[in-house]
From TrEMBL:
NCBIfam families: T6PP. It comes from the Bacteria. It comes from Streptomyces shaanxiensis. PANTHER family: TREHALOSE 6-PHOSPHATE PHOSPHATASE (PTHR43768). The gene is otsB. The keyword Metal-binding applies. It is an enzyme of class 3 (hydrolase). This is Trehalose 6-phosphate phosphatase. It catalyses: alpha,alpha-trehalose 6-phosphate + H2O = alpha,alpha-trehalose + phosphate.
Length: 307
């Protein structure tokens, strides 16, 4: 590993699209195409990843990135082609990690990540990095529960029942956090907007923070985010390049961590899964792909392009 690959049609620095300032990916210029990152740091990172895949970390969010968004969070599952793509790529890179807001064991179950040949070294960082599951041991390490979660668990149903804005909402009890989903309300965005302030008050009174996401407001302990989780894992691995793919506001700290890694000399590639719902992410991405389907295609193409 470590020899430079033929980047003839995938070398971002020589691509026709290298001067584009659009975040739209170009998948059309080869039989086995890689999209052209829209920024020079993104092109540098893709080149570094292809040149030395064995030193690269591939880090991915779960919901909306590996798993299509569905109305019922308990029915979310990895895209059917995600596991084969991850299993093909993982042996060729330094590591694959899933960094998710889900509890780690839930992501492992919904992703089908345990016991998959090729994914023997997979790491799942759950609860935004507060929890960790290692495929090697099959064990989850988790922090002590935050006392505020129990208090919120007791108060939240009453708050929602006593509020018109609570109609059609669903509480996901995540153990170390509680999430209020509005996707199945009659007016998902209106309900989300109306609940934001009372839920922020409730969280603050109990020493928690509100993590907003795609039609979800999560009340969770402070002190960890996906950016911290990603930076710490990059350091642990000694990765020389990083790809991070996400779809939601909770992924922004990971994007910021990539910016910092870049400024410190570690190339990083920002991938956004889907461009419309969370423009804060797609506007910063080097590559925008068409949801989990596009993420899987990208992983498959990277697996085909690396040895
Ligand atoms: O960090 P992630 O892996 O992206 O997890 C973020 C949250 O994802 C889940 O909610 C989202 O997906 C649901 C299923 O598709 C969808 O119904 C919901 O509207 C989305 O917000 C999950 O339920 C949360 O616990 C995660 O924090």
């Amino acid at each position: 590993m470590g020899s430079h690959k033929d980047l003839t049609d995938s070398d971002p620095s020589t691509s026709d699209a290298s001067t584009s300032d659009s975040t739209t990916s170009d998948w059309t210029n080869s039989m086995d195409p890689l999209p052209t990152p829209s920024t020079q740091p993104g092109r540098d990172a893709l080149a570094a990843l292809l040149a030395r895949p064995a030193r690269a970390l591939i880090a991915l969010d779960f919901d909306g990135t590996l798993a299509p968004i569905v109305a019922d969070p308990e029915q979310a599952r990895a895209h059917p082609d995600a596991l084969p793509a991850l299993a093909a790529l993982a042996p060729k890179v330094a590591a694959v990690a899933v960094i998710t807001g889900r509890p780690a064991d839930v992501a492992v179950r919904y992703g089908g990540f345990a016991g998959v040949p090729g994914l023997e070294h997979l790491v799942v960082l759950g609860h935004y990095g507060a929890e960790r599951w290692d495929a090697v041991s099959g064990e989850v390490t988790a922090p002590d529960p935050h006392p505020g979660v129990e208090a919120v668990r007791a108060e939240l149903p009453g708050l929602l029942e006593g509020s018109d804005a609570g109609q059609g909402t669903w509480i996901e009890d995540k153990g170390h956090a509680l999430a209020v989903h509005t996707r199945r309300a009659a007016d998902p965005q209106g309900t989300f907007d109306a609940l934001r302030e009372p839920l922020t008050d409730l969280a603050t009174r109990n020493g928690l923070i509100v993590e907003p996401g795609r039609m979800v407001l999560e009340l969770r302990p402070p002190g960890m985010d996906k950016g911290v989780a990603l930076s710490e894992y990059v350091r642990e691995l000694g990765a020389e390049s990083v790809l991070y793919a996400g779809d939601d506001l909770g992924d922004l700290p990971a994007y910021t961590a990539i910016d910092k890694l870049r400024s410190d000399g570690t190339p990083g590639l920002l991938v956004c899964s889907g461009s419309e719902e969370v423009t804060e992410l797609s506007e910063r991405a080097d590559i925008v792909v068409d949801g989990p389907e596009g993420v899987v295609r990208l992983l498959q193409t990277l697996a085909n392009r690396t040895t």
